[in-house]
């Protein structure tokens, strides 16, 4: 099967490596060629580099202090000794410059992280109980609608009960709002459409029923504080900003006394008792509060990404979108900036969501699994194959060897993934996701991931870099151990899990394995139904159903971000 | 019965070559003079003394220590040499060695070495004269083809790239060239120009490289076809997994 198959990356690599781009002289040849001419054209060959060099020169002239100058590279040997080539965003027809996939150069990437960081979920039920039982105030759908109208004035920074207050300019915080959702259809019917995340409308029927059953008659607020606030402060600010404005809104909406003791009860109930952060607080050695990327579990990431509700019949696609989002946030932003700094991590991460190389490997696996295990890679629960060591070995081995052979048969694919860390992520993400798809078991997928690492290392005599290798060679021993600090279900692991804290390129893959296990079963969510529903909201600036396409739009400068400051700076 | 090291499983030429590299019993193919080696390593001028970080051990009056009595110091440690490095890059297009097999070869056959293994490069740190011995061993033997492997301290990019028409692995810093049928190095490990063209001899032919290589490739010896190695990997994987299995 492997040799007959038209590779999904073929067209991308042909355009990337056999067509001229800018002045890189890459016209001609085949993507299977093992030899090529290196013209050593430097940065002059690439339009974006030329633009950047010009900007660097202008900046130096203007400020009187030198800055970006590509001739500083290697003592005067600039980048571009090999051809500088564009890439395609996997699953799309969008061709981008590699530089435009650094998050600094990509507004969509920034906004994805902004939209996660500025989000918190707050329960309403305890607050309502306190109002009714402690204060004797009746709560009805009408009062809830009124409260939400007040809150959507207050949450962005509008005053509600005080005189002579400064307020934020609405045009600077127009991305800030709060909606609610509930598993109670009767209550949902009574809520003004503008305030409701309608589970019945946003999810396929089967998923909607499962979500409503899990959420029951509870009611939750999906609050998104202003992007500009979140960028100026940090993720831990989100729940605090929300808490202050929620408290004020309750007082205003229900005409309460601002000082009586009962309001303290309400404050706790409304502001703190039912708060769900997207990410857990990290230990002191990482020094990050809640809602920072290092605390976002892989299960939460799988739930934040929304492909599962718009393309549920293609669980491989669901996993691939989670790979893209996870690699961007965990690798490019968390490891690449919070934990490390510099620019090197981008290329580790983008390998997993460009040029369809990983996509090809995973869809090959889907065919392999469906042929051998009677459709086990399709969405479903009755079709899954039992998660045994034999199954893990079979799927992960076939997947890994197929991927390795692609690098050998298509030298341009190898050249695209020029670092072992890139290849290791892609090969293991394919093996792990496929095993998870077939078994519906995330830890079986994780087991496949580690076997893939071993096979890769033995086949090629190399793997990733020092620390990367270390973590990948010891990880198998804690896949099925659930002792504290030694093992966890993959859904509950995250970037700060022992051995993952510097695991470059991997974390999007782990999130994908999590996603694959649940999307493969057709589950409506992986870990938290509230998070899944919270992001099922078309009003968010970033489209969480299609993160890879959004990154492409960002690279093409077509993405409209939030939190811009043009209103308060001199016009240009 | 005396124990005989088996080193590595597998019935293919790649597996056999891996065993050879690990055993250290590799064929010598070329001579590299001490001065040429010193030049390309770039740590000191040829003929100069080894810089030291401490006096010779014999002059230091070491404390009583059973480990020191059991383990004889290497020549570099005895002399007080500083720790320096040699770093190789091996092409994935059938270079004879691969990063892990360089590390295994050195760690098994030499003392006082600190190998580091990456995907595109492999570094060994050791006391300077010990490191030079290790470097020379690798450069002079079948572990190295001068066209498909090279010394690169920095800017190592190239192991996975298509080969240029002349077959000399891509090097952004252009440290090696093919001149008159032999590979010369005209820059040191980190790309500083040296005042001599160091001759590393002829490249291996494609056939010879394919015969001597330690990398599996589908167009030579496919990994898929070495069933014994795959079975061994599966065994290691299962044992490591079972070792940590604790469902409670």
Description:
The complex is a heterodimer of chains A (572) and B (248). Chain A folds into 3 domains: 92 residues, Alpha-Beta Complex (Methyl-coenzyme M Reductase, Chain A, domain 1); 160 residues, Alpha-Beta Plaits, CATH 3.30.70; 238 residues, Methyl-coenzyme M reductase, alpha/beta subunit, C-terminal (Methyl-coenzyme M Reductase, Chain B, domain 2, Up-down Bundle), CATH 1.20.840. The radius of gyration of chain A is 25 Å and the shape is globular. Chain A is built from 24 helices and 6 strands. Chain A is mainly alpha-helical. In chain A, a hairpin with a 6-residue loop joins strand 1 and strand 2. The longest helix of chain A is centred in the middle third of the chain and has 26 residues. A 4-stranded antiparallel β-sheet of chain A has the order 4-5-3-6. In chain A, strands 1-2 form a two-stranded antiparallel sheet. Chain B is α+β, with helices and mostly antiparallel strands. Chain B has one domain: Lambda Exonuclease, Chain A. Chain B contains 9 helices and 7 strands. In chain B, the strands form 2 sheets. Chain B has a 4-stranded antiparallel β-sheet. Chain B is globular, with a radius of gyration of 20 Å. Chain B starts with 12 loop residues before the first helix and ends in a 5-residue tail after the last helix. The mean pLDDT of chain B is 96.
């Amino acid at each position: 099967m492997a040799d007959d198959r038209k590779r999904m990356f073929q067209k991308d690599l042909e355009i990337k490596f056999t067509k001229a781009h800018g002045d890189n002289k890459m016209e001609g040849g085949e993507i299977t060629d093992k030899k090529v001419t290196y013209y050593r054209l430097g940065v002059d060959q690439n339009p974006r580099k030329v633009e950047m060099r010009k900007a660097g020169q202008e900046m130096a002239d203007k400020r009187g202090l030198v800055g970006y100058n590509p001739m500083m590279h290697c003592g005067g040997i600039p980048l571009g000794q090999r051809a500088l080539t564009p890439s395609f965003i996997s699953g799309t027809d969008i061709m981008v410059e590699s530089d435009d996939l650094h998050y600094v150069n990509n507004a969509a990437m920034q906004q994805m992280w902004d939209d996660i960081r500025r989000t918190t979920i707050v329960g309403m039920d305890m607050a309502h109980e306190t109002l009714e039982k402690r204060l004797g105030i009746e709560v009805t759908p009408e009062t809830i609608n009124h409260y939400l109208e007040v809150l959507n004035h207050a949450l962005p920074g509008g005053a509600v009960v005080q005189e002579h207050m400064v307020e934020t300019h609405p045009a600077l915080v127009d991305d800030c709002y709060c909606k609610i959702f509930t598993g109670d259809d009767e209550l949902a019917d009574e809520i003004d459409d503008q305030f409701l995340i309608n589970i019945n409308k946003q999810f396929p029927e089967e998923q909607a029923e499962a979500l409503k059953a899990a959420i029951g008659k509870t009611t939750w607020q999906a609050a998104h504080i202003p992007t500009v606030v979140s960028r100026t402060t940090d993720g831990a600010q989100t729940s605090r900003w929300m808490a202050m404005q929620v408290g004020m809104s309750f007082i205003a909406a229900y005409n309460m006394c601002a000082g009586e003791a009962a309001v303290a009860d309400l404050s706790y109930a409304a502001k703190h008792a039912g708060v769900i952060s997207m990410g857990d607080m990290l230990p002191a050695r990482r020094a990050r509060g809640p809602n920072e990327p290092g605390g976002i579990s892989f299960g939460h990431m799988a739930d934040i990404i929304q492909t599962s509700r718009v393309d549920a019949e293609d669980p491989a696609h669901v996993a691939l979108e989670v790979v893209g989002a996870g690699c961007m946030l965990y690798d490019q932003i968390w490891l690449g900036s919070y934990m490390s700094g510099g620019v090197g991590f981008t290329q580790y991460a983008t390998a997993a969501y460009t040029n369809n190389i990983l996509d090809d490997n995973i869809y090959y696996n889907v065919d392999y699994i469906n042929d051998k295990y009677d459709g086990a890679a399709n969405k479903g629960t009755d079709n899954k194959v039992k998660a045994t060591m034999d199954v893990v070995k079979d799927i992960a081995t076939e997947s890994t060897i197929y991927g390795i052979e692609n690098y050998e048969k298509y030298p341009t694919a190898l050249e695209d993934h020029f670092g072992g860390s890139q290849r290791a992520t892609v090969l293991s993400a394919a093996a792990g996701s496929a095993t998870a798809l077939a078994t519906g078991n995330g830890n079986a997928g994780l087991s496949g991931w580690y076997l893939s690492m071993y096979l890769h290392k033995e086949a090629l005599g190399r793997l990733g870099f020092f620390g990367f290798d270390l973590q990948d060679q010891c990880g198998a021993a804690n896949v099925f151990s659930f002792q504290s600090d030694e093992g966890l279900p993959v859904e509950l692991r995250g970037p700060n899990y022992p051995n993952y804290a510097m695991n470059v390129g991997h974390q999007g893959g782990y999130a994908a394995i999590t996603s694959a296990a649940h999307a493969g079963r057709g589950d409506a969510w992986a870990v938290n139904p509230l998070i899944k529903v919270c992001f099922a909201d078309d009003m968010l600036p970033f489209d969480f159903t299609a993160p890879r396409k959004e990154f492409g739009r960002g690279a093409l400068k077509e993405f409209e971000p939030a939190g811009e400051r043009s209103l308060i700076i001199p016009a240009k | 019965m005396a124990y005989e090291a088996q080193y590595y499983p597998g019935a293919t030429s790649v597996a056999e070559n891996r065993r050879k590299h690990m055993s250290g019993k590799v064929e010598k193919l070329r001579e590299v003079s001490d001065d040429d080696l010193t030049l390309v390593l770039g740590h000191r001028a040829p003929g100069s003394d080894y810089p030291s970080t401490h006096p010779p051990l014999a002059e230091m009056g070491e404390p009583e220590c059973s480990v020191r009595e059991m383990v004889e110091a290497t020549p570099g440690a005895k002399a007080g040499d500083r720790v320096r490095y040699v770093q190789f890059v091996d092409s994935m297009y059938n270079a004879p060695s691969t990063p892990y097999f360089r590390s295994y070869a050195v760690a098994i056959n030499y003392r006082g070495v600190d190998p580091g293994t990456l995907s595109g490069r492999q570094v060994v740190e050791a006391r300077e004269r010990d490191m030079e011995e290790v470097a020379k061993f690798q450069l002079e033997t079948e572990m190295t083809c001068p066209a498909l492997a090279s010394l690169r301290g920095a800017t190592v990019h190239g192991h996975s790239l298509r080969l240029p028409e002349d077959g000399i692995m891509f090097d952004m810093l252009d440290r090696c060239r093919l001149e008159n049928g032999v590979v010369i190095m005209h820059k040191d490990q980190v790309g500083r120009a040296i005042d001599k063209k160091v001759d590393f001899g002829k490249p291996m032919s494609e056939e010879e490289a394919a015969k001597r290589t330690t990398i599996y490739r589908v167009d030579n010896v496919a990994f898929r076809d070495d069933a014994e190695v795959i079975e061994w990997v599966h065994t290691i994987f299962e044992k490591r997994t079972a070792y940590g299995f604790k469902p409670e």
